[in-house]
Specification:
The protein has 23 helices and no strands. The protein is an all-alpha fold. It is an enzyme of class 2 (transferase).
């Protein structure tokens, strides 16, 4: 009788949870199935991207060099009109001082394909020399379409792959609603949308390839993961922010198999094979190879530019790094600090690799790179934001804070681009989507200290206060970039705290799993 009652209670509980899922804000959507759910959220994400793309972009109407929009268009011009061997070589037909290619060959191939698309519909947009500063309405429309198509062809499928792998087994109503919320967080990331579809870049390609590689690792397809991550590295060298996590996790897995040497060799061959295919046009001579490599590491620009919220820029208020030390010394300092802050996470994954530990490892390698590596841009915060978004379902508050501070750290850049309206709108949209009711098990704030609510409220006040100060007040003539510096220091402080928290969180994962194993043995 007692067993029957227990079963009946369990069935009632399951039915209640299923009903709750159907009545939840996402319930009307998730009841239609996986593909319709993803398709509808994707369509909404595309509409948001299209709306943002109607606004200005980096360097709009500001000769002589304009901005990132012109850089991307110029690379299409160069790749369509010159042979691959000349793309990275300075000459009469390719002036590297004017937006010379400084990304790996896969970016050049992408520019070539997009350049053919522009040439088909508007040949003047990629005419050699004559197209510099070309900004007709039709050409801008075509350029925006290349970014949208990149999202649809690379980033969206990669997110779908990850979503299927990560949410496998979530069948109850409430869990399906959580999964729908998760895909909304992944596809409607305000920082990525503002940079790619506002400012104008193609981060969706390298980040999409990285998401695909992460999904492959989680589904135990390590060879595919190596190929995809190698492609990400060959699209943007900043993908190296994730390299310590991939290396340590895959090595940790290999060391636990019967023949570690064979397993490592297989992965190494895939990586070398992928690189060889991508770099094939430049393997004919050592000089050609070194010429491309020299373009990928612009050390002459200094350890930082503008007001990026990392260690070097934030501490330069007190320590004038560029005046006190030459570039070789700064490169060494940067290397030591970046590697040393990545090491704890790497050791964790080499000693006890796990799927959840790997996701935290991605965050705990990309954040130190952002905070301590050489030549970091404001836009590089997109890299730590990626693993934070992958972890959004399990640690939503982490993703929330990193997104808010990431947006604030890029605010001066986006304001200069004339993107204030989409910035405010996407901030509000993100706030609304984030706070849609979800399963209580994953929506509670990760704050154990009693002081957390007070500190959180103070931080929020500062967050809005800095926006208001920047928009309504003029800085002193003696310190024209005072407000940018305040935003930078404020964001750096929070990024550093989040880095400490996420490292601690990663190491507590292994303790938690050990406790679970002990409990299983006792049972």
């Amino acid at each position: 009788m007692e067993k029957k009652k227990a079963k009946k209670t369990a069935h009632v509980g399951d039915a209640a949870r299923a009903g709750a899922g159907a009545d939840a804000p996402w319930g009307w959507l998730t009841n239609r199935g996986v593909v319709p759910t993803f398709s509808l959220i994707s369509l909404f994400g595309l509409l948001v991207r299209a709306a943002v793309s109607l606004h200005p972009y980096s360097g709009a109407g500001t000769p002589p060099k304009y901005g990132d929009f012109e850089a991307q268009r110029h690379w299409m011009e160069i790749t369509v009109n010159l042979p691959a061997r000349d793309w990275y070589v300075n000459g009469t037909l390719n002036d590297l001082a004017y937006w010379g290619l400084d990304y790996p060959p896969l970016t050049a191939y992408q520019s070539y394909v997009h350049g053919l698309f522009l040439k088909l519909f508007d040949p003047d947009a990629v005419a050699l020399f004559a197209s510099r500063g070309y900004e007709t309405y039709f050409s801008k429309l075509l350029m925006r379409w290349t970014v949208l198509s990149s999202d649809v062809m690379v980033f969206f499928p990669a997110v779908f792959y990850f979503w299927i792998v990560y949410n496998r087994g979530r069948s109850r109503g409430g869990e399906r609603c959580d999964a729908a919320w998760h895909v909304a967080m992944l596809l409607i990331n305000p920082c990525l949308i503002l940079i790619d579809h506002g400012h104008f870049q193609y981060n969706c390609i390298s980040l999409g390839l990285t998401v695909g590689a992460v999904a492959a690792v989680l589904s135990q397809k390590d060879l595919i993961a190596c190929a995809l991550f190698s492609l990400a590295l060959n699209h943007k060298q900043m993908s190296a922010y994730f390299a310590p996590a991939f290396f340590s996790h895959l090595l940790g897995k290999c060391l636990r198999r019967k023949n570690p040497f064979f397993e490592v060799s297989r992965l190494g061959l895939v990586v070398m094979g992928t690189f060889a295919v991508v770099w094939l046009p430049y393997l004919y001579s050592t000089d050609a190879l070194l010429q491309v490599l020299s373009r990928l590491a612009p050390f002459e620009r200094g350890i930082y530019e503008d007001y990026v919220a990392n260690f070097w820029c934030a501490t330069s208020v007190l320590i004038k790094w560029k005046r006190l030390f030459l570039t070789p010394k700064l490169k060494l300092f940067s290397f030591i600090m970046t590697v040393s802050t990545c090491l704890p996470s790497m050791i964790h994954q080499m000693s006890s690799p796990s799927s959840q530990g790997f996701l935290y490892g991605l965050l705990n390698s990309s954040l130190p790179f952002y905070l301590f590596s050489f030549q970091v841009h404001e836009k590089s915060i997109l890299l730590p934001l990626l693993p934070a978004s992958l972890l959004a379902l399990d640690n939503p508050s982490l993703y929330k804070w990193l997104t808010h501070y990431g947006l604030l750290s890029m605010f001066p850049l986006l304001h200069r681009d004339g993107l204030l309206l989409p910035y405010i709108t996407l901030n509000a949209l993100y706030f609304l989507l984030y706070h849609v009711p979800r399963d209580k098990r994953v929506s509670k704030v990760t704050g154990s200290s009693a002081a957390y609510p007070i500190l959180s409220a103070f931080s929020v006040c500062c967050y809005f206060g800095l926006h208001l100060i920047y928009l309504t007040m003029h800085p002193p003539e003696k310190y024209p970039f005072l407000f940018e510096a305040l935003i930078m220091i404020f964001c750096f402080f929070h990024f550093a705290l989040l880095a400490i928290y996420t490292n601690k969180k990663q190491w507590t994962l292994s303790k938690h799993s050990m406790l679970l194993n002990k409990e299983k043995k006792l049972i």
